[in-house]
Amino acid sequence: MNQSLIIKGLSVHAEGGVLSNSNVVILGTTIDKIAVNAKSFPPDAKVLEFPEHWHLVPGFIDMHIHGAMGVDCMDADLAGLAAISRYLPEEGVTSFLATTMASSKVKIEKALCAIKTYYIEQTSEGSELIGINLEGPFLSSKRCGAQPLADIIDPDLQLLQKWQDLSGNLLRAVTVAPERAGALSLITYLRSQNVSVAFGHSEADYEQGLAAIDAGLDHVTHLFNAMPGIGHRNPNAIIALLLDSKVTVELIADGIHVHPAILKLALKLKGAERIILVSDGIRAKGLGDGDYDFVGQLVQVRNGVARLSDGTLAGSVMRLDQALRNMLKFTDCSLTDVLKMVTENPARKLGIFDRKGSIASGKDADLVVLDENYRVKMTVCRGNIEF
Questions:
Q1: Domain residue limits at 19
Q2: Distance separating alpha carbons of residues 232 and 308, to the nearest angstrom
Q3: pLDDT tens digits, one per residue of 111-134
């Protein structure tokens, strides 16, 4: 239940900069104000004071997560979606896109309908489901990764429009392999609907990449994964995407999907404003090593790495706060820069920066307290202390 909260004592990473000795006042589900050296508070407010070397930061937004705690978004289970929502504040995530993957049309449609129902019925508690990320099935059969090969199909505009209708217009991001027949018309349509279109699971060449960007493609799903490497004589679409300043890129910063040196290179090429850190979490997230189902496929998690039986990486079990710490360690970027990658950048990409992605008066009270080692100590979701 919402109550008036005052958070004080620590460094506040506000929209205008980092503030010391400030108080963040929360009324209901929103941030009321940021007051410097305030001494009087609402009489019924709960005052929480933290060490001055800790940090108050905006809530994290995970644009790409398939599941957690034994649940996958493809399960089409309302209780399961609620379980994901309850878990995510542990890692500082206050908002997320429920991410689907290639499967039969029937299963995808069941998942879309279930996510729509949960979206409508969700309360202000837990991490907020803010939309859907459709990662499959319009992908390359040669770069399907852990996506089931049998369910990969050409982009189908009529089918996509049907799915957008079934979802209640909740599609916020769609991954497309631009070399496939029908891809460009699909990209043009999605951008006309303000849906982000991501390059991913693709073998597109440089020219096809340029054509996709011209059609409106504006994002990259897990950069460098499920796509060819860079060739210096025959550049592929990745070069076009890295060179275009309008295109943002996802990174799975676990040091496994992408080598630390390549994370550093991506930061130099795209800058902190064009990178979005994601977990690409699967149902094993939060549960530890073991054997799990991934849409009918066996996934083995060993030492925190998820793979199919043939060794193919299959999403991750990494927490998003761990991605933040990894990026700091691997690239020597600043905390201000890495915070953009999990807060402001995804909020801007999804068109919700007016209410999420920064600490400012009038925005949703989605806040995270980090200690001096950048570990999550408290998470507030829309005014509720959820962790």
A1: 5-56+362-385
A2: 31
A3: 999 999 999 999 888 999 999 999
Residue 163 has φ and ψ, to the nearest 5°, of: -70, -35
256 within a domain of the structure (yes/no): yes
Q: State the Cα–Cα distance between residues 370 and 141, nearest whole angstrom.
A: 42
354 assigned to some structural domain = no
Instruction: Based on the fold, state whether residues 212 and 230 are members of the same structural domain.
Output: yes
Q: Give 24-53 pLDDT, tens digit per residue.
A: 999 999 999 998 766 666 778 888 999 999
**Which residues does the annotation mark as catalytic?**
280
In this structure, the answer to whether residues 51 and 68 fall within a common structural domain is no
Q: Quick one: which of 346, 316, 294, 320 has its CA closest to 130?
A: 346
Give bridge partners of residue 98 from the DSSP assignment: 65, 132
User: Could you count the other beta carbons within 10 Å of the beta carbon of residue 219?
Assistant: 23
> 355 in a domain, yes or no?
no
- Is this structure's pTM higher than 0.70? yes
Q: Are 46 and 27 contacting, i.e. CB atoms less than 8 angstroms apart?
A: no
Identify the sign of the CA torsion 318, 321, 327, 328: negative
DSSP label of 201: S
DSSP letter for 356, please.
S
